[in-house]
Amino acid sequence: MNNPIIISDFYPELLQSSSGNAFVIKTTNPELFQDIYKLVNQNNKLHCIYFSDLSKSLSSIDFKPEWTGIPISVFVRVLGELKQLLPKLGIIRSLNLRLFLPAHPDENLTSIKILSSLGIPTGVFFIKGEKINWSLLNDLMYYYFYTINKHADIEPFKYIADHYHHTHINFNAVYFNHPLKYIFCNKFGITSLTEANLNDGKNGDLHISELNENWKNEKKLDFERDLMLNFKHLNACSVCPGWRICLSAFKEQIEENPGCTDFFTEMLDACEFYNKTRQNKPELCSL
Amino acid sequence: MPNLLLTQKCVRSCPYCFAKKHMDESPPDDILSWNNFIYVADFIERSGHREISFLGGEPFLHPKIVDFVLYLIERDFHVNIFTSGIMNEIMFNESQQYLSGLPFEKFSIVCNLNDPKSLSFSESEAVKRFLSVFGHLVTPGFNIYKLGFDLNFLVNYINQYGMKRHIRLGLAHPIPGTKNASIPKENLPEMAKNLMRFLPVIDKFNISPGFDCGFPMCLFSNEDIGLLYKITKGNLRFGCGPAIDIGPDMKVWSCFPLSNYQKKSVYDFDTYSELYDFYMDLHRKIRIESSGLYLKCDNCIDRNRELCSGGCLSHNLHEFVNEPKLRLEEVYPDE
After folding, report:
1. Which fold does the domain B3-331 belong to in CATH?
2. pTM for this one?
3. Is residue A232 part of a domain?
4. Which of A114, A147, A149 sits opposite B34 (nearest CB)?
């Protein structure tokens, strides 16, 4: 089955009435993690729990050993107090977690480097309207790709490096926001390609029970057509070599905060380096 | 073990301070950033080392020192801090909460103690407060910079605060091009006699002395050396070599007396071993011009047998500064 992964809030009735689907469940309440895991996996498959609370810091979260085996992506505002987080690293490492911090404030980019150097898988995400320090982000990208010392993965760099093959990619898949992989769903089971459309009640798409194998083929044409609209006018994005990675994700701030062009162009080189390094590694034969 | 400067400012003004010239020439608000700190940790780890010392200025002036220590321990490093023990209330409380319970195998402190008679009341109280909490992690350090020194107070402190039963003895050396308190080389034999007078007391309390770099072996008679060997359980060195200091701005140099000689950047080297070899080579070249403190060092059998390095290079470099430049370029400070 080639169905998309469904993103929704925690709706127990919807989950009980659905079967054979993969879900990303969004919640702001860590107390629900175990309930979500049990309920989703009864008739469906839990792809991930998307925990987002931008009023929180990482150090304030009470990470529990009972979350073992539950795939969780955590999106919070800042790292918080490192000295309070360090005693929790043992538990964090035992869990199936990926910790995300926004690119703003600047200190978050350093916090991500700290966590990665301590073996904690992390990621950076981008909040619309918030200014990005491209120089610091570039420094983080360099750290990920070129530091020889062992360190944990940093998204979306890892995703980009693994999926970039000289054609365009959409790194928003890391944030469960890729129209060919993920689809949003409300409590009534109505799906939509974007969360905004779903919340507005506009352009409601299929019910989840109506999703079929042809879904991806139909959406792919729409997706590719939308991409090509970027080249309808001559602008900074349409002539940028890095566009094939960012897909104009930062076009709104390109005038007042240029830097994305240099950053993503450098990332192309980093991806080449990453792939060459992987090719040189001997592969174990499978027995 | 490399020394990483967290700050370029100090809370004291010790007359012998060998970092004074370097600090005077550095911006006082220059502190080590997290990004530079992680880079240095990675750099040292790549060379297979897992030990770092924090230095300054006064390292406890850095607002993130507690985070730095805990971070490195999480990465399986051993951290040592060189400190005066003098810090503000907030830093003291934070350090007490997070560092005082760490095991000595992972975290140690060398507290540079001056004679209490030379301290102000507030300095003395601050040091005592620090030692009362951290004493079990502390090895006392003492710098000899004048002939009339007294080590008895260290014995009292070790007993009172439960410090490690070892005294790290440093010999203040003249910093080339600057005036800091130090003992002229012609008076060093008298210094050695004075030091040996304290040995029976130290030994009686089961305390061992250790020499920091730059003590020449010939200051001590064979009998003295025998006694020192016994008291130190064979851990007796008369060495002088690169200590490797790394500044907050990622500049690197051999040691403070040579901080203006062939100063480089950490980024100029791929590994710590490469960096250490570079400065070892510098020491070798300087020793070609001047093998040691005294003329007799040139033909000294103990130096040739590598039992003694010939004392600190800074004594002769200090003299070369005012000479016409006729020697190897390595013996002159950077322009």
Report:
1. TIM Barrel (3.20.20)
2. 0.92
3. no
4. A114
